[in-house]
Amino acid sequence: MKRYIARRLMQGVVLLCMVATIVFFLGRLTGNPVDLMLPEDATPEDRAALTQTLGLDGPITEQFAIFVGKAIHGDLGTSIRMKQPAAEAFFDRLPNTLVLIPWAILLGMMLGIPLGVVAALHRGSFLDRAAGTVAVLGIAMPSFWLGILLIFVFSVELGWLPSGRMGGPTHYILPVITLGTFLVAGFMRITRSAMLEVMESEFVKLARIKGLSEGVVIWKHCLRNALIPVLTLWGVFVGNLITGAIVTETVFAWPGIGRLTYEAVIYRDFPLLQAVIILKSILILSINLGVDILYAYVDPRIRLA
Amino acid sequence: MFRHIAGVATLAVAVVVAATMPLQAQDQKGTLVFAVESLGAQTLDPILEGRPGNAVYQAVMYDSLVGFNLEKGGVGPGVAERWELSPDGLAWTFYLRPGQTFHNGDKLTAEDVKFSLERQMGPGSLASAAASMRRTIKNIEVIDDLTVKVQTTSPQIGLPAGLSRAVAPEGAVMPKAYIEKVGEEEFRKKPIGSGPWKFVRNVAGDRIEFTAVTTPHWRGRPHFKDLVLLLVPEESTRVAMVRTGEAAIASIGPETMLSASRAGLEVLSVPGTMQAIFQFWGTYKPEVKDSPIAKVRVRQALSLAIDRKQVIEHVMNGKARLPYPFATFAYTDYFSAERWEKWAAEAYRYDPVLAKKILAEEGYAGGFELKFANTALPGTQYMVDIGTAIADMWTKIGVKVTLKHYEWGSFAPMERGDQAGLVGWASMYRTAGRPDAPWRYDGAFSPESIQRLLGDKDNCQEACQDFVKTYRALLSELDKTKRTALTDHMVELAANSWTVVPILEGMGYYAVNTKKVGQFAPIAGRHELGDVFERIPRPEEKPWKK
């Protein structure tokens, strides 16, 4: 088990180095922050001075070497726009995103899992097709559009909920629905296929032969086993939520790391963009590693492979 | 009897207390909430912020050495109530208003002005004009508490405009004693200024909160007690917030004007905030000499083919106007606005028949191929729509337009260096509204400038040389009449070259909930409301006219 964890950690470090390198060079292809910070009539002299002040005047390889040197010591640079350590800006905003995620997952599980069970039990029926439609809609519907639609209906027309911003409990409802709709679809599809597989198992047939009620067979024996693949995908969903919050947070003016990423891209804030993507990667890698370890612990075949 | 006297005395005391109470307690109430798409760097230190951010939120709490002309737009009195140029043109003396104080009660003096200008020029400053200021400002001398003299290395007629928030943020006045006492780090956390609003809280990525000063202020006494500037990047959400009353005012684009208006919101437009233009790159270069766009009349014909009224009507929803010549507005300093307005009405007319005739006379009866780079600064998506519309209009006179869309991030680097990707091309561009035309002209036409649209150091022909001569003369011309004549000549040179052609003069747009704020007027030429909030009344004070 220790060797397995060490191997996965090493893979994570290599992956992180690759991400950092790609982000550093690709980020610079999107333009120069100086173009956005100077007015149209700026002189070449002002341009050169600002480029130097921002530390963007050296060759890109030299900038990369400085970046790597600092990153090794835990310094991910200072945000060009905010003049704040980029990692600090990330951790300032991270809690705002993390408070949305559990609620979105809860919504996804509470609706998606029962829907998946119902769809599996009524395979090929109207209910199955209806649940399938929900799944397709949830995956296909852009969260940007869904968010605006929800604001229009529940804030503007009905006046029940606030349009956006972080605030009291009512402020969470629309962003959580927007984030969670994708998860409802995801949980529903996985639960359905897992249930169908489990329902064909020998132990389920045995349970029925033993005379257990259909409710006990389905909800206790089948669902408990069907939930194993569902729970392992939990980590993937959390990763998706962390990266996918950009759109939801932008639509609902929610000051989380999704919005921070958006701002870093818009303002060509290279150090901030690098830090945000690297720290997000660490977060996602950690979650995936945790899930892998848990899975390997539960199923020894995984670590032996 | 005693009870009667006591009653009268109590009443008298109550009246005296009410009369002497701070204005806030009597007149200032409620919260003004403004939703905006960007809060820039969201820092309250003026040396770390650019022009738009400064004008949106820093202006709320900082005063600028030179201010606005609130009626006409352009430059007007600020912290300095007047200023004058020395006879040799090498020194500007600014005379400050007496009785100004910072929010901690410290007096605002000439020492603060000197400190602020030096801080803007200092090594840690991100001010866009820091390098230019270092080059042009030789010395800043405090004459007395209310007089400061700025000596320059050469005549700098445009210096007051450069220190006005109508143009640039570098004139923001900061508290010397406070910054020296608490240090920069603490100042950035707990900033103080001298404006009509005091800083309360800055929540990164979300909002900035201010509260009104309770004493009278030369910029105007705020009608609201508190001011909250919300960062709401998505336009649909901003409009929804105004509709629900969560925000009173929101910045919007021309695309949203109609829907906001139909939803019962007041749509307020600020005139003269920008010009949408198209321009031709490197037309003077030897490798372009055989290209149709190297010919002045062909460029003029392309302008005649544009139906500006259609663009204004359909792309800008009618909320724009026919432009003045390049980078000039009704409020431009030392400029014959009336004369040029008449000129523009004739020159920028729609005449496709004449356009075709000119093309035929120039040997392009069958049209020609034109490469056109369509681009827009972030937040000005309508510029791409304008570009697409004019490309379509050129197609109608037989020009085969190769339209290529560029994201601003990839377009901007093409302007620099040898401009290899742009020479021989036309492109969309824009210019912001500002009262001092020469600066913008220098940035577009000087052979040493980044854009150098009339000529570069190796190819500076007649018009280019004339521009250089005129611009240099303008920099040192002290006589107002002669300065106006020189500005007019500079404008004429550019206008007759047809290398930079305005399409329309745009406006800034706001959706307003009339139940949340009373009627107010923005400042012409300034899209941002940082200098307007204190003059926005509550709805009961000045209801909107139906």
N-to-C span of chain B: 55 Å
- Output the structural class of chain B: alpha+beta
Strand content of chain A: under 5%
**Tell me, what's the shape of chain B?**
globular
Structure summary, number of beta strands of chain B:
16
Oligomer: heterodimer
| Secondary structural class of chain A | mainly alpha
Strand order of the largest sheet of chain B: 8-9-10-1-11-16-12-15-13-14
Could you tell me the mean pLDDT of chain B? 90
Low-confidence stretches of chain B: 14-25
Helix content of chain A: over 70%
- Determine Rg of chain A (CA atoms, Å): 24 Å
* N-to-C series of helices and strands of chain A: HHHHHHHHHHHHHHH
Question: Into which percentage range does the β-strand content of chain B fall?
Answer: 15-25%
Helicity level of chain B: 25-40%
> How much is the average pLDDT of chain A?
85
Number of discrete helical segments of chain B: 18
**Biggest protein-protein interface?**
A-B, 51 and 56 residues
What composes the largest sheet of chain A? none
Global Rg of chain B: 26 Å
Task: Tell me what the structure shows.
With 305 residues, chain A is mostly helical. Chain A has 15 helices and no strands. In chain A, α9 crosses α11, α9 packs antiparallel against α12 (234-251) and α12 packs antiparallel against α14 (270-298). The longest helix of chain A has 30 residues, at 170-199. Chain A is flat and about 85 Å long. The model of chain A has no long low-confidence stretch (mean pLDDT 85). Chain B is of the alpha+beta class. In chain B, 35% of the residues lie in helices and 21% in strands. Chain B has 18 helices and 16 strands. Chain B has helices spanning 2-20, 23-27, 51-61, 110-121, 130-136, 159-162, 176-189, 235-244, 257-262, 296-304, 308-314, 337-347, 352-361, 382-396, 408-415, 437-445, 462-476, 480-497; strands at residues 31-36, 66-68, 75-77, 80-85, 91-96, 137-144, 147-152, 197-203, 207-212, 226-231, 249-252, 266-280, 369-376, 400-407, 426-432, 500-512. In chain B, a hairpin with a 2-residue loop joins β6 and β7 (147-152). Chains A and B meet through α2, α3, α5, α8 and α13 of A and α5, α8, α15, β15 and α16 of B.
